[in-house]
Structures are given as structure tokens and as C-alpha cells.
Amino acid sequence: TGNIVGVATAVVSGGPGALFWMWIAAFFGMATKYSEGLLAVKYRVVDDNGHVLGGPFYYIERGMGKSWKWLLGVGLFGIGTFTQINGITSAVKNFFDPEGTHIAFSLFGNDYSIFVVIAGIIITLCVALVILGGLKRIASVSQIIVPFMAVIYVIYCAVLVIFNIGAVPAAFATIIKGAFNPQAITGGVVGSMIIAMQKGIARGIFSNEAGLGSAPIAAAAAQTKEPARQGLVTMTGTFIDTIVICTLTGLSIVITGAWDSGLEGVAVTTLAFQTGLPFLNASIASFVLMICLVFFAFTTILGWDYYSERCLEYMTGGSKTAVIIYRWLYILAVFIGPYMTVSAVWTIA
User: Fold this and answer.
1) 177-211 b/e with 16+ CB inside 10 Å = b?
2) Which run of H or E residues covers position 204?
């Protein structure tokens, strides 16, 4: 969701220059990610059942000492649930009910499409089936979905950029100029360079997770005995995620001018693909983006549950009761997500 919706919200609120600060965040983030991956393998623990446990809670305690345990982080609901499910249901609504004419109910002055309700229920049920089925099921589902969604989305973005290759140099110029003088690009709509910087760095870190302590939880389970090797592998994730995929999304939005359309969230990226790929029917462009976003967000929901459960195992000494309670709370958070505003979910994240 950070790659599709996060980039859009950053460019809309911070101007095209926010993409430049995403690159800066990724540049330093690769060093952070390398360190996280290396430490995850170096200080991981294998329990009596052969279960690998690792991540910041283990390398802080085992590498720095128990007096530093106060630094430990906890997996949060906000990143893994609200933004993901909200992105999915927004994309579904944009495809099936773009005019918002099929209203199911209104809440706090906001109208909610019947398609948002249906999509929210279906995704919540799917998440529940996977999560309650155990972590092995998460792995089996993700290893099928992730390669498929990544390849489709990258091809989709690359075709748009190639088709509009003549506008790419101007887009890069706009991004660089907007990074240091946003008013010159936005006409004063965006306040300052500080806003562009803050939005770009925040969304960049959201997309690649560098320094959040989440990636090393997964890295600790890697089948390798070389910490430095895993550090390099973990680092490439940041490059692919932000330098490649986020750049493709950002270029699509800047090239087509979708960032200045008055829309928000996934609607911005949808408009970019509809405008930048005129040889495709608008409905087809919306459908492909919707499918990609569903796959991106769904696997992210599953991944963050894995991270959170590893945190809980450490905090509670492996309490199965705590994990079961958390799973149900996590599923509840997924159920609630569709009915929050775009600005609310990204502020929480």
C-alpha cells in the first residue's frame, strides 16, 4: 500500500518533490536495513522445538544487554491493518462504484458504498482464515501471491513510463525543483520544503520499513549462517521497494499530472494509469490497479500479523493465550479499517 497509495498521498500533500526525499530516505535506509538483517541473524535464538526467534527485541537484549530492553518496539495495529484494508476497499469502490451512488449507510457525515462493505467483509474473512490457520498458512499463501503481484505491478508502471518517455525528463526536473522549492511547482498550495521532506521521508520509510524493526523479524528466519549475507539480501529490499517501485508509481503520477487533480489516496494513482495508458479502457486500468493493490495489501496484513506475534512471543514468554487474543483483535482492526478516512489511517500509520 505504501508503494501505491503512500506515494500518492506523499506527492499530493508534499508536492512532486516528496519523491526526491523518498529517494534520500531509501539511500540511508539501505544501510539501516543492512544492519537490521545482519543483527537479526547474528543474535537470533532457536528454541527447543527448532522455532527461530529473532528481531530487534533479541539483538537489543543479547547484543547490548538487558538494561537496554526499554528500547524494544511493539508491532502496531496501524501499519498492518488500517491503511491496508482501507486501500483495498477504496480501490474496489473506485472500480465498481466510482460515482458513489450505491450507498449502504452513512457514518459521521461520510457515505459508505455497498462495495466498501462487501469488500471489507470478504477481506476480513480471508485474513481470519489465514491467521487463525497458523503461520505456516501465511507463508504458503504469501509465496504464491507476492511474486505475481510484484511482476504485474512493475510491468504495468513500466509500460506507462515507456509510453510517456518523452515526458520523463521534465518529470524528473519537476521532482528535483519541487524538493527544494515546492511553491514554484505547486503555486503555493504546499507550504514549504519541510512539508515535502517530511511527507517523502515518512512515506518512504512506510513503504520500505527501514529502521522500523519489522524486516529483521522475518530476516531472522532466513536459512543462512552468514549474518552479512542476510544483511545484503535485506538491503536489496529497500532498493527494489523505494528506488524502483515507488519511483515508477511517483513518475506515473507526476507525468500525468494526477497529483494536482484534487483527488486523494488510491484515486490519484488510478487516474494516473487511466490518463497515462490511453490505449487501455479506463475500466481495465482501474481493474488491474485494484487487483494489484488487493494483493499488495492482503499480504502486508498477513506479514504484519507475523511480526506482531513474534513481538508477543518475546513479551509474554511464548503465551499462546496472548497470541490468540491478539489475532482476534487484529482481525477486528481489519474489519474497522474500511470505515476510517484516508487522512486518519495515514496519520495513524
Assistant:
1) bbbeebeebbeeebeebebbbbbbbbbbbbbbbbb
2) helix 193-208
Tell me the pairing of strands 110-113 and 52-53: unpaired
User: Which pTM value belongs to this model?
Assistant: 0.80
Residue 88 has pLDDT above 70, yes or no: yes
Grid cell locating 76? 502496531
In three-state secondary structure terms, 1 is: coil
Q: What is the dihedral of CA 96, 100, 105, 111, to 10 degrees?
A: 130
Q: Which residue has the cell 517523502?
A: 200
Average pLDDT over residues 84-90: 87
For residues 22 and 246, is the Cβ–Cβ distance under 8 A? yes
Quick one: cell of 133? 490457520
Closest by alpha carbon to 2, among 84, 119, 124, 74?
Answer: 84
DSSP secondary structure, 280-295, as one string? S-HHHHHHHHHHHHHH
Give the chain's length: 349
Nearest to residue 232, comparing CAs of 63, 40, 55?
40
Helix (H) or strand (E) holding 130, with range, is: helix 114-132
d(CA 293, CA 219): 24
Contact between residue 265 and residue 87 where contact means Cβ atoms under 8 Å apart: yes
- Is 106 strand, coil or helix? strand
DSSP assigned state of 259: G
Helices 18-42 and 7-14: angle between axes, nearest 10 degrees: 140
Please give the backbone phi and psi of residue 98, each rounded to the nearest 5 degrees, phi first: -60, -30
51 and 293 Cβ atoms separated by less than 8 Å: no
Q: What is the pLDDT of residues 197-238, one digit of tens each?
A: 888 888 888 788 888 888 888 888 888 889 999 999 999 989
